[in-house]
Design brief:
The complex is a heterodimer. Chain A is an all-beta fold. Chain A is built from no helices and eleven strands. In chain A, strands 2, 4, 5, 6, 9, 10 and 11 form a seven-stranded mixed β-sheet that branches. Chain A has a four-stranded antiparallel β-sheet with strand order 1-3-8-7, with no helix packed on it. Chain B is globular, with a radius of gyration of 14 Å. The chains are: A mainly beta, B mainly beta. Chains A and B meet through β5 of A and β6, β10 and β11 of B.
């Protein structure tokens, strides 16, 4: 059990459609980060949410947006899907400890998105 | 910008062989380094991490890694691999910005261990 729950596990969408992926963080964690893992590549950072606000963002277009809810769960939305958006989307949760240097991440099993 | 390079994309070994996976990072400040493993169909799991102190870090399942600051390297090693070590291995560095951190991953090394 990863502690981080992602849904759905698999999804097939058509080009131009919109998709919403969901993530429930590990109990006790308050920060959620999203990563995109394309086939044969390492995870790429999309953005991070803490206290219901986007705190950091990677090099992804505005078509990628997110939200964090008061219970710390999070959604990743992708609009106007492209074939290149096909990937495994990973959610990672952690606990913001202020100035402490170590933030332990727990990853979910991911959502496999296929755009056709 | 920070980056992580993993030298080997695919490695094939026989059981009991020794393993060393290369990882180099590009980051000028204090680094936190990680090795993650992803077994087929499973989530990323932390193998080991380095924050400070002894540059030789022991992890789970018999893995270890050595931080060599002068070479910007954090290579993963295991003296004797097992078939169950077949997985994809990712090196990562913790990157800080505005008081928040994120992980930057390498492209990964796919390890296949044959019985």
């Amino acid at each position: 059990d990863a502690g981080v729950t992602q849904s759905p596990t698999h999804l097939i969408k058509t080009r131009g459609q919109q998709v919403t992926l969901r993530c429930s963080p590990k109990s006790g964690h308050d920060t959620v980060s999203w990563y995109q893992q394309a086939l044969g590549q390492g995870p790429q950072f999309i953005f991070q949410y803490y206290e219901e606000e986007e705190r950091q963002r990677g090099n992804f277009p505005d078509r990628f947006s997110g939200h964090q809810f008061p219970n710390y769960s999070s959604e990743l939305n992708v609009n106007a899907l492209l074939l290149g958006d096909s990937a495994l989307y990973l959610c990672a949760s952690s606990l913001n400890r202020g100035t402490e240097s170590y933030y332990g991440y727990t990853f979910g099993s991911g959502t496999r998105l296929t755009v056709v | 910008a920070q980056s992580v390079s993993q030298h080997n994309h695919h490695v094939i070994l026989s059981e009991a062989a020794s393993l060393e996976l290369g990882c180099n990072y590009s980051y000028g400040g204090t680094v936190n380094l990680f090795w993650y493993v992803q077994y087929p169909g499973q989530h990323l799991q932390l193998l080991l991490k380095y924050f400070s102190g002894d540059p030789l870090v022991k992890g789970i399942k018999g893995f270890e890694a050595e931080f060599i600051k002068s070479k910007f390297s954090f290579n993963l090693r295991k003296p004797s691999v097992q078939w169950s070590d077949t997985a994809e291995y990712f090196c990562a560095v913790n990157s800080w910005s505005g008081g928040y951190n994120k992980l930057i991953f390498g492209a990964g090394t796919r390890l296949a261990v044959h019985p």
